[in-house]
Amino acid sequence: MSGALLLSAEDLVVQFSLRGRKLTALRGASLELFEGETLAVVGESGSGKSVLAKTFLGMLDKNGTITAGSIQYRGKDLARLSRERDWLEIRGKKIAMIFQDPMTALNPLKTIGEQIREVIELHRGMDRRQSKTETLKTLEAVGIQDPERRYRQYPHEFSGGMRQRVVIASAVACKPEILICDEPTTALDVTVQAQILDLIKALKAEYAMSVLFITHDLGVVANVADRVAVMYAGQVVEQGTVDEIFTDPRAPYTWALLASLPQLGVKGEDLFAIKGTPPSLFKEIKGDAFAPRNPLALEVDFVAEPPIFDVSPTHWAKTWLLDPRAPAIRPPDSVLRLREKLLAERKLS
Amino acid sequence: MKQSPLLSVKNISVDFGSGRKKFRAVSNVSFDVYEGETLSLVGESGSGKTTIGRAIMRVHPISEGEITYRGERISGDLTPKAERLVHQKIQMIFQDPMASLNERAKIDYIVSEGLYSFHLFKDEAERVAKVEQALRDVGLLPEFATRFPHEFSGGQRQRIGIARALVMEPELLVADEPISALDVSIRAQVINLLNKLKRNKSLTYLFIAHDLSVVRFISDRIAVIYRGHLVELAQSEDLFRKPLHPYTRALLTAVPTPDPQIEKLKKIIVYKPAERSPDEPAPSWIEAESGHFVLGTEKEVNSWLKL
Questions:
Q1: pTM summary value
Q2: Do B185 and A278 touch (CB under 8 A)?
């Protein structure tokens, strides 16, 4: 976990033009990924977590541009990379991505062996025979039995979980340094989800990759992540180790996300619910973007955007609550209960 | 809660296709739903949970067994009067609020469509009043009636879907994955709404879901389905405290918990159906503990109880 800095995004701003209007999907998002770690990015849909991941691969839609900020990777600023030729050196080869829906990520007209083989041939410059052997090895590594036979089959002959394994195989086939997983288990059943999470963890160790894991499920975060970045309305609002985020969350949005988990609810009582909907990113947002939905918001939240406050060397949050002048505000009860439960367990073990 | 059941599903089977291509999606499933409770059907995709919901709604014909509602048979051929009763008293909420609303109709029409087809209003004023009340019940403003579905967010659309069911004054709501397509922050709002409506309108829910954390929070009883068979049925807390069937245990360990320490050490169990030799007795539906049923042979159930 304490590896060197591998990839860092600084104050990224991404805008999309939609029918003459400007949508600001990322409003100065910053993120660091270290060697050998799994960083989970959590947030609801529209918080910009997928857009952030796509900027690392140069895969923004045509109407989207990075208007400010930088992405540092191995001495290069990926935000300045514009030629497709330069991206091909990185995308798929150094940074690979697994998508949410295994049903649409594969070409239905090609055998799955062919789809993985062409990736290897292209990126690793192997000939047909070598790349086929390599494909079979990769299929075996992702837990597909009888790879020789499966090699010749088409995506429709696979179940959802198996298809996701194929998608993972094609992503890790080139031994990338960074694996980006965009909600890889959302479309899957819980039992299959648990298996795929285990597979990603095993492959990460085997191929010595760093993983950027995008999800909205805090249970999944607890399972895979070493560190967590919480996103809201195009910004990272809190970042810390997984323990810090679960036992000592500081940003009100992180509180709200944790508190609305049904696992923490008390039966018969109302579950903590976040009011309203996320703000429109077409408009300029003043102050703290979460303030209108936050019953605990301070007056200053509506006026000025909070800066980043450090909680510990590995933990920071973007909230005025951490300002020395802020009043002491208690997190919701369920967050406190979770904290007590987790701390009690720590003492036991 | 031990009165006569509101809905009773007796040994039903549902087949798709015929002849050699016949596929049994649900086989020999029985359960009761009592008035005022929330019974959840859980299982993975393809387990047949949705098919059971649809069989109750009379979308899929059942090939064996019987479904009764307040003691009256509601499966198979019915008189028009009985059929109308079913369609009014049992309403359904769907999974995807983006796909389940007619994009070209205004909310006013979407919510009143059932009223029109059953002539459940005396005059225009009463219809409007009913629509407005249904919208208020789900926490929307009556003014929204003149808008189109695309003007609403996912959570609001799901509320519209619920309003459309409520306007019929149903007794039983079959909710097929009503929150799995919703965002985390919106999910809690809809769960709270469903719970509030249950209390205020004394509704009964048959809740179909795969997300066990949600299911645990809202259900009184849980039925676990595996490949068309009911494998376990128990009070919600009993099931989580002491799951008996190996499939249920595999399912429960797979649910992610918001606890990094437990999650990091977790060993997942992969369920494989037990292989039985032909001379062993076939598994049967056994009440292992009071109110806790499980599918297995007597020997198996005894060994599960000792775990």
A1: 0.88
A2: yes
